[in-house]
Design brief:
The protein contains four helices and four strands; from the N terminus they run ββαααββα. The chain has 139 residues and is of the alpha+beta class.
Length: 139
């Protein structure tokens, strides 16, 4: 690595700056991630990039916030994909239920363990209509 990169101290900073020996400075951060991984972006993120006027590469540092927005679209789509995988029950014939503050039934994701429901989850899944419940006590 020392043959390719060098670290240089500049007078205006206490931090060392890295340079490629053969050509000088190089980009890191959102612009580099975007340009190197455009083909791996979710199709919706690629469409968002096109709608924002970005091509497959971007070298304009003033567009880094736009590139971060495209990355956010990709991250949201990936999160939704993972949630869909997590939602699929391991055994569809055994329903997942919450009773008395404890989760029953098989884990929702293969390899996951049963979880304990919180009080708010238990309240939210109660079959008693909110209007029929007694009002909360004053403290």
């Amino acid at each position: 690595m020392e043959q390719v990169f060098e670290e240089v101290h500049v007078a205006r900073s206490n931090a060392l700056q890295s340079k490629v020996r053969a050509r000088g400075s190089y980009h890191v951060g959102p612009l580099a991630r975007y340009s190197l991984n455009f083909d791996k972006l979710h199709p919706r993120a690629q469409r968002a990039a096109a709608a924002a006027g970005l091509g497959k590469t971007c070298f304009n540092p003033f567009k880094s916030i736009v590139v971060r927005c495209v990355e956010t679209v990709h991250a949201v789509e990936e999160a939704l994909r993972l949630i869909d995988v997590y939602r699929q029950p391991a055994r569809p014939d055994v329903p997942f239920q919450v009773k008395a503050g404890r989760a029953t039934g098989p884990p929702r994701h293969p390899g996951a363990c049963s979880t304990t429901a919180t009080a708010s989850t238990t309240r939210a899944t109660s079959s008693t209509p909110r209007s029929a419940r007694p009002p909360p006590r004053a403290r």
